[in-house]
Write a structure and sequence with these properties.
Blueprint (H helix, E strand, L loop, with lengths): L2 H16 L3 E6 L2 E10 L6 E8 L9 H15 L4 E4 L6 H9 L17
Parallel strand pairs: 3-4
Antiparallel strand pairs: 1-2, 2-3
């Protein structure tokens, strides 16, 4: 990443944190996983969960699962009618976890690169 891209990423992250859109899952006061949300409708009644991350040393302990489940429940309790989450079809672990906490496959997307125009 260039210095400009890093600065833009930091600025975007700071905005999301300031808006309260980034959630940390903590164990004994130490952050072990995070997830964020982004409203996707003009009325604010739906959105997507994204930026799910757990540092390698904390993976495999259910922290991201708990974080995403709690954030999803909070968003639905706040009035959202639906939550979306995008995942890689090839990632069997996340797909299984998201189904277990209530997500369903609604559509599949494909990226096609036609090269430079």
């Amino acid at each position: 990443m260039s210095a400009h891209e890093v600065a833009n990423a930091r600025q975007a992250a700071a905005k999301r944190i300031d808006k309260g859109q980034v959630y940390l899952w903590c164990r004994e006061g130490e952050p072990v996983s995070l997830a964020a949300y982004q409203p996707t409708s003009l009325t604010g009644t739906s959105g997507r969960i994204n930026m799910v991350y757990t540092p390698p040393e904390w993976r495999g302990r259910g922290y991201a699962t708990a974080c995403v489940a709690a954030l999803t429940a909070e968003r639905l309790a706040s009035g959202w009618s639906s939550c979306l989450i995008f995942t890689d079809k090839q990632n069997a672990v996340t797909n299984k976890i998201y189904r277990r906490i209530g997500y369903q496959v609604l559509a599949r997307f494909l990226n096609i690169d036609f090269g430079a125009a």
